[in-house]
Amino acid sequence: MDKYSPEERQQLILQLLKSHNKVIAADLAVQLGTTEATIRRDLRFLSGEGLCKRIHGGALSFAPPSGTQEERLENRNAEKQVLVLGAVKIIKEKQLIFLDASSTHMLLASILPDNMELTVVTNSPAIATRLLERKTIRTILIGGELDYAVGGAIDITAAEAINKFRFDLSFLGACAWSSETGFSAVHYRDREFKHLVVTRSGSIAVLCTDDKIEALASYPFLASQEIDYLICKENDSSLKNYFSHTECQLITC
């Protein structure tokens, strides 16, 4: 006899997804004292209710809830403050850098080195405003219709502007990362814009908070093996294990 009712099992699975972002059916069967077939039925039900995303052998949580760029700044702010300190380590003199619309990149803009003759391009007015205070950093704000949810311009005008640059280093905002699909975005047009930036960049860097690890958003834009730098917390073992087998340089903080 099963230790838990279907409803109890499903609530426990959701709790594990909330804390770990990914669950494996075989592990759940042992942990919850039931069969893999039962767990798979539970995962199918939860997926059908829109509460998780089925993958081979288990399930992923969806990307964490978003909001405006300013609202996202308050979420996991202390963790983001640590990550941007790690991001500064990969910046070199006289680089042309792209900062994608992102709450974490707002923090990064405030601590970019003043003595490296940097040129920074961004599609985010909030990031440009922070850079305006940095007199030694040349700042270029690309135009276009502003997307309220993203916090920057991602339309065709912005895309045409991106085609005029060849970035040494681009910092891209990611809504989620999973070992199954790589880095993904919540909005389709944002995905298209990010993918274009990738094609115009020598190196790509992503700052990844814990809540985005082994999660899934609807629109993948970058495969894991295509990233050059990943900045994450020291205790993110799943990222360490995965990226140790790639050419990506992992910066832990």
Any overview of this molecule?
By secondary structure, the protein is α/β, with parallel strands linked by helices. The chain contains 10 helices and 16 strands. The protein has helices at residues 6-20, 25-32, 36-48, 69-73, 77-88, 103-111, 125-132, 156-162, 188-199, 237-243, and strands at 22-24, 53-55, 58-62, 96-99, 119-122, 138-141, 146-147, 152-153, 167-171, 176-178, 182-185, 201-207, 215-216, 219-222, 229-232, 249-252. The radius of gyration is 20 Å and the shape is elongated. The protein starts with 5 loop residues before the first helix and ends with a strand.
Element layout with pairings:
Blueprint: H1 6-20, E1 22-24, H2 25-32, H3 36-48, E2 53-55, E3 58-62, H4 69-73, H5 77-88, E4 96-99, H6 103-111, E5 119-122, H7 125-132, E6 138-141, E7 146-147, E8 152-153, H8 156-162, E9 167-171, E10 176-178, E11 182-185, H9 188-199, E12 201-207, E13 215-216, E14 219-222, E15 229-232, H10 237-243, E16 249-252
Parallel strand pairs: 3-13, 4-5, 4-9, 5-6, 9-12, 12-15, 15-16
Antiparallel strand pairs: 1-3, 2-3, 7-8, 10-11, 11-14
How would you concisely characterize the structure shown here?
The protein has 253 residues and is α/β, with parallel strands linked by helices. The chain contains ten helices and 16 strands.
Largest sheet: 7 strands, parallel
Would you list the SSEs in sequence order as H and E?
HEHHEEHHEHEHEEEHEEEHEEEEHE
**Whole-angstrom Rg:** 20 Å
The amount of beta strand, in percent, is 15-25%
Structure class: alpha/beta
Mean pLDDT: 88
Query: Count of helices?
Result: 10
Shape: elongated
State the separation between the terminal residues, measured CA to CA. 46 Å
Count every beta strand, where a strand is a DSSP E run of 2 or more residues.
16
Low-confidence stretches: none
Strand arrangement in the largest pleated sheet: 6-5-4-9-12-15-16
